[in-house]
Amino acid sequence: MPNGKWRVDFREEGKGRTRVFKTQAQANAFIAELQHSKNQGTWINSRSRRIPVGEFLERYMQDRRHNLAVSSRYSYEQYLKNRIKPRWEHVPVGEVTRRDVQDWVNDLADELAPKTVRTIHGIFSGALKLAVLENCLSSNPCNGVQLPKVRRGEKVYMSLEQLEMLIDEANGDKKQLIRLQATTGMRFGEVAGLQVGDIDFARHRISIKRQAVTVGNAVHVKEALKTEGSRRVIAFSSKLDEELKELCKGKKKTDFLFTKKGTQEPLKRPEGPKSWLGCAVARIRAVDDDFPHVTSHDLRHTAVSLMVSVGAPISVISRQVGHKNISMTLDHYTELFDSDLDALTTAMDSIL
């Protein structure tokens, strides 16, 4: 060109295109890249790069609609609405850079828990991976982004005395619910989904067949459980017989054992300080500062600690709580097996 610049003419989607470069080397590099990408079938045309990210977010959710649990789908939709679309919905997919994604993730990490940030990044990355598969991007700009580390939170294990304090403070059938969950290790959703016909009093067994999952303000009953281990038969103490039989009185086999007051609907998960569980804990803490901040999942943790304390085999505990394998149980509750180290010390002392 007269001004010393170099022009490359090429065709894209049947139309003539032009790119101008400052040097011959830049022009030759573009020609080589163009030829290579066309030979490999990876050439990304300019029209595809202009497609807004929002379209790929919609396609991603549409493709995953049959694989997501109701609760997960609700969470994803909230993350899309509040965290992803406000930043990316109208951005052309070809303009998303790894640096932009990293800055966005850093901002999210200032406000949200590491696990939440990772989930949001995973959704966004999934949508851009779809853009790569559809030849609208040559690579995923989410790759290589540094994510915050998830640090395992400290579990709460109540003593028997603390458990009895909580049961005494609870109202109505919540007393039986707490005792059942804190001695069997059931997940709250499994307790909420429990029906009268699932209880075998003769053998002291409970069949876990479904979960009642809280999604927003609604409760959804899931017959299909996550894993084979989740669908199981567990044991319960004979000391719960009278309380459970009292709850079953006047109910059909298909009725839920625990229901919202005045309805036949399963209970919603007690979350936050204003829930029935949060209020019971607050009343105890008003007179006992040492009482822990207990959540519904801590009742499950407490059950595991009680099982360990009575010497139950790890294989039985793993089966009871519905873990996929023993390794999963050991990984979740390593701190409960410190006494095994004491036994090892004693054994080694005996041979040295």
UniProtKB/TrEMBL annotation:
Q: Which domain of life is it from?
A: Bacteria
Supply the Pfam families for this chain.
Phage_int_SAM_3, Phage_integrase
What Gene3D superfamilies does UniProt report for this protein, alphabetically? 1.10.150.130, Intergrase catalytic core
Q: Which molecular function term from Gene Ontology is one that the record holds?
A: DNA binding
> Does Manganese appear among the keywords?
no
Tyr recombinase domain sequence ranges: 153-346
Q: Name one GO biological process term.
A: DNA recombination
Q: Which residues form the Core-binding (CB) domain?
A: 51-132
Question: Which keywords has UniProt assigned to this entry?
Answer: DNA integration, DNA recombination, DNA-binding
Question: What's the family?
Answer: Belongs to the 'phage' integrase family.
Q: Protein name, please? A: Tyrosine-type recombinase/integrase
Origin species: Corynebacterium coyleae
